Amino acid sequence: KMEFAELTKDISYLESLINSKEVMDSLLTKELEEVNKTIVTPRKTTIEEEVEELVVDKTSMIPNESCYICVSRDGYLKRFSERAYAANEGQLPATKDSDFLIGIKACDTLDTLLLFTQKGNYIYLPVYRIDECRFKDLGKHVSAYVKMDSQEDIVAAILVKNFNTYAFVVSLSKKGMIKKTSLPKYDVSRSSKSLGAMKLREGDEVVSVKVCYQDDDLIVVTKNGFYNRYSEAILQDLAVRAQGVSAISVKDDEAVAVVPFRKDGNELYLCSQKGSMKRIHIDAIPLTNRAVKGGRLYKQTKTNPNYLIKADSVSAYLSYYIDDGELKIMDVKDVPFMDIDATFSSPIDVKAPFSLLKSDMSDIITAEIVDFPEDYQKEESSILQTNLFDE
Length: 391
What we know:
This protein is mainly beta. The protein has helices at residues 2-19, 21-38, 82-87, and strands at 66-72, 76-80, 101-108, 112-117, 121-126, 140-141, 154-160, 167-173, 177-182, 195-196, 206-213, 217-222, 226-231, 245-246, 255-261, 267-272, 277-281, 295-296, 308-314, 319-323, 327-331, 355-358, 365-366.
């Protein structure tokens, strides 16, 4: 009888635990108090009524992987694996018939791509945001990642691994305006739209954007073959949205390219709209003043004249992909050195129109990491910040 009474009592108590929240809470409180007395552990956190907003670095959750990126003039971007690139070695990624490649580049997913447009804007785009595609896919338009004018074309691309570098972005406009801005000023923590990179006058557009470093020489080249050469040091470090200063006099002419050269030099490569080419030793190009008409890089012919479409620093070990409807490869060493007052040579048969792409993938420029001088004072960027992760 006593055992039956105890079982009945236990059943009644257990039913009350199941059916009554108050009884259950009382039991839990009692057991937790006993645990607290047995295992004494001071609380390591504090309970507050108001909590600051938690900031999560989303990039810390993104794996840093090696890959390739591809950029076209019309603004199509794609990312593909090292395996896909190796499987298609010697071929160029697909583009639309009216489009051509700005370049291909090996990079990491945590790098940042800066895209510069002819309307004086730039786009800040982390590589990991670019969708991975097959090698022969067209890719996605840049407007799928940031808000921008649909009429803008890409004129240059710069790959940045670290904005904390003593490097400068040099922008040149068709009407001969030039602007030098330190690379760290282009860094933004968040960007969902294109940002101003150079103030342009009416009818003007950006034609060339390069990266230069302390004590580089700059050669500014025009369509009719005129040039100016001077040190980057004569240009002030301007704000990102500044207009710049006159680089060369372009009356009845237009600027085509700015080419930075280190003091140890390389060679200047020139190509005209007819596919005529020449190389010039950098030492054969005299220094000039800024904002003058400058000297000539080749002898112009009165009939069927040559107009420059390409000027770049090269070495003899470089090759070019030339696409005129048929993909060809031309070694730079096959382009003869010529005097500054000579005309052009024709090392390869090319049909206009055509596009040129460096075989070493340096058309997309990688900004080198260079230490700042001890007396350098960094300036804070004034760029409006918007959400990097906004779609």
